[in-house]
Design the sequence.
């Protein structure tokens, strides 16, 4: 049994804690949150220890590994602390909003053998993973175009948006990772357009965008398109398409249930899409814990590493330059 | 060019006339209808001859073959006339509402080499035909269960229902033929239940049913179910499912177009189903003409023969006995 | 927290134990199995008590309620014991293979206020439940026809089949319950055909059937069809269709993931269906525990009661008479 | 009856001739092709006159209107001839490969009341049109993103590609028109990437691309993406998605038939997509003739005008500059 402690008891932290609690090869070693009440509730519900500080977790003998689900500005510090403590770490994305801080963190942990895994949970979705598996099995040949559609069911509260780091670092970052995962090749150029159509005043105030389209190309000319919107009234729109020389694979959306309705004016109507990521990616979050336990148990490199978090952030950085300067950006400009 | 004359210029006759007119290897040799105005209009629109009588058609040298789309009571007579005249005949279903009349007709034309084809148009639907083709290609192994759903968009006018011969002879007869086509084996027993749920008063008056479920078995125990209703508000529901040892094949419905709509309360909504048979089976009606021309040109037995019309009627007869007497009926009781 | 003990630590019992363990308002009070090793493993994995006997569970103060997942012949006894002990009970289906025993059990517990819930888990599937919800919301009007397709991915081992009580009591019984749930009205007549196509020798030996089609009608003439097979190579085929005056609702199958594959010879191909009930109905099994906890907490009648188990068994009994005697059976013959 | 003559008896011309022949309110007034044998065959098959020259058609009293399906370099000349002759004209796209020639043609016919309709046939596809209709009915609110996928089943012969004018003017031009049709607003900027992945040597020789991704924005920031490939092994991939504040509408692909296949390793598999445009857009080509006849009969402006052809070509021109210069292009640069 891998004894994992959870740092951060917000909505995502709680879910991770429950998944660890339910996992057959892991146990929840305890929780911590700067908001004591939050940690207390989770600890009580799952009958586990509430740690007094993050430091206590990193120094506890009864903790084998940590899951970091705290606020973004703490991620890089906790990754460094985990490496220092020799405790494998599964850290929520992003590593940091600042490329400089991520680079510093990379230097700080360079050469470590402590497994550091990044929480790009979508890689563990069975549908998205099946697209990648089809590619690896040669079922669709060489991939020429990847099309990712990713739209939130609704825009987050103003307070969240204001500190989010902007749509590219906060939302598209998942799609940048998915693009790399599916394409299996690094991107070289990026070109983005952004608009303020969903919440113009808020976006104006934050110098941010709520509706973006991003195009990326690899050195060999392969293409990827990402379509984002902060609001899709029909639910959380999450689709991935890979088009290749031998065929195509598409990971489709997840409606709330599998029923279809027919009436006088329509046929084949499904329910709205599962809303939001905790529901839509429930299977993926559970599988992510599984992959982390696997990596630690087998002393294998995690499925998603620190470098993946770094590279996704560079794409976000380049996208932001592109939309602001109205030109394609070469990735080497930001590396 | 096969010169085909059309007897009957009602809705179906007109459609057949247009399909013949548009067919690359056939030409419309003329039309006839006892309602002169109906024939006149079709003849004018398509610039063809209006014959003065059915006899004129059967004796005309410039007519190579005939298509019979007149009222049911005339079908058997015209089939016999076609055989006598040596003119290949494509006749709308059913041959007759009376089993005795069909048997007499069978005797009358016994041994003829004149191609007589029955208008069980659904066999020519690309989807239904693909189910049969999958079976013949061995893709789903031995067929164990066939499930046919067949619901009209709305009940026909009272006047039509009153002379229709009842739901089994008028509507289910298509499904009986489809069941034989898909199963590729004759049925031995039939068991039917019927209800008056759509138009109870009319059904009561006609001693008919508007909602029926029929189960048939072959000698080897294979099973077929047919579900019929005279009214499906979402359109013309036409589905065929074949379940076998190696898999399953399903021919799905046809919505009016291929668009899908997403809104705040639903996703993936399609349009109502194509409504009614002229629209839904447009491709099949055109392919049926094609198959008829093929059969005549190649002096080959038509894809659907007189015997198929006969056998479907026997199933209808047996179903009626079953529902009235509340017991399974063995086909030999009606043969 | 409702403290639930689990009797029976086979595959289903283990799954229930894990679901209780993971449930936010329940806790696993302990387990028991006549096979000690089975109980020991579950107890160890989930860190709970292993009871020495069923009696110990029924007399334990720290047990608020019980879940019975033992072999069928013990179900009725444990239900009676639960009532005597005043412990709410969620019992796997069927109550018993013998109608007489079920009737005796019904008498024994008559008038009890202890909640007894039957494990017809499919009612809790979000898709099937959405069909029922659409009916209750009036979205499809009066239901005229219900079509249930239920095919296992593969036939169970001989040893299981031999003591299963036959396909109607073992497999179709779920569909009988589903039919009552969806139709919302009792059935009056039943007519079944059965064949031995999947495993003829085994079926012959057990005087059982592996491929059946069942038709049922209500007093008002509404119709339900059930199609069963013991082997569907493409996976666990579980579909429910309700056709009504205002529309139709269909609960569709669940493929292993939501990806679709396109190749040179095909498009839109999905993965095989989830296989088997533990995977397919994972959500439903979890929701079932939820419904049980709700019922106990609110002192409300369970969503599925003892009577539902009783009625489903009567339908199974009648179906068996129908297929053996080759005639429709009126339910009053078996009540 | 509108008497329409067809100029050009290649594959598309023949199809148009047949559609006119079959149209209830039109008749085929004759045909012409510089390849006499081609015209002769069509004339014989459909029993119509073979004109000796295009001039003969423009001066013939028995010709009310013309359909131009000749090679691209003749289009602008014939449009001018039609205007001079006062004969309504339905002209295949593109008007010309040269923006200068199109502008000259626009000047030459400026102010004419003779209906000139451009053959952007996809607007008449029932699925694509349903997307536009949903927008106009307000069903999906304000459109924020349009996603068009358009991939040919296979690359055209070298000889065709060499004179095609390049992928943007030859293939994407349809998608540019579709983008304008669906968005209902003009685009202001365009950004394109292109690659040589399908037929690198040929593309290199022609200085052309076989795989492109195009992003366009309107003045208000709305976005459109087009994904093109010259080869999709699964068939002719033609999808249109409109995402708006109130929902989304998607026009889906058309498989060869509506059957779905299930086997041991897959479920729900459809046939390859209809291949190629004559099959996929058969309904649209017939409806296009209908719209042309309507426009002429009602003296109404055609659904697709000369200006639509002009604007689509400007988008193609701008896309080409963008991909060559590696920068976004403002449409005013090419107007």
Sequence:
């Amino acid at each position: 049994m891998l004894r994992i402690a959870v740092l951060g008891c917000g909505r995502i932290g709680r879910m991770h804690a429950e998944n660890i609690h339910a996992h057959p090869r892991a146990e929840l070693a305890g929780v911590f949150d700067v908001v004591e009440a939050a940690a207390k509730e989770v600890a009580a519900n799952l009958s586990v220890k509430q740690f007094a500080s993050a430091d206590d977790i990193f120094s506890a003998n009864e903790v084998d590994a940590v899951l970091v689900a705290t606020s973004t500005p703490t991620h890089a510090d906790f990754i460094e602390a985990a490496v220092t403590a020799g405790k494998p770490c599964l850290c929520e994305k992003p590593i940091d909003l600042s490329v400089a801080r991520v680079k510093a963190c990379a230097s700080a942990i360079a050469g470590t053998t402590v497994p550091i895994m990044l929480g790009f949970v979508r890689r563990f979705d069975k549908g998205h993973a099946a697209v990648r598996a089809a590619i690896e099995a040669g079922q669709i040949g060489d991939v020429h175009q990847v099309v990712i559609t990713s739209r939130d069911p609704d825009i987050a509260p103003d307070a969240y948006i204001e500190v989010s780091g902007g749509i590219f670092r906060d939302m598209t970052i998942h799609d940048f990772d998915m693009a790399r995962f599916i394409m299996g090749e690094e991107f070289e150029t990026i070109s983005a357009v952004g608009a303020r159509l969903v919440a113009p005043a808020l976006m104006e105030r934050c110098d941010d965008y709520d509706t973006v389209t991003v195009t990326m190309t690899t050195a060999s000319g392969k293409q990827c398109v990402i379509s984002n919107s902060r609001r899709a009234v029909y639910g959380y729109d999450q689709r991935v398409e890979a088009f290749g020389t031998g065929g195509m694979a598409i990971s489709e959306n997840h409606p709330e249930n599998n029923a279809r309705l027919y009436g006088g004016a329509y046929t084949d109507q499904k329910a709205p899409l599962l809303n939001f990521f905790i529901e839509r990616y429930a299977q993926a979050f559970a599988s992510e814990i599984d992959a982390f336990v696997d990596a630690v148990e087998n002393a294998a490199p995690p499925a998603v590493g620190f470098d993946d978090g770094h590279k996704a952030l560079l794409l976000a950085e380049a996208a932001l330059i592109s939309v602001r300067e109205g030109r394609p950006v070469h990735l080497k400009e930001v590396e």
The interface with chain C takes residues 233-235, 253, 255, 261-273 of chain D (CB under 8 Å). Residues 123-280+311-333 of chain D form a domain with the Dihydrodipicolinate Reductase; domain 2 fold (CATH 3.30.360.10). Chain D has a mean pLDDT of 97.
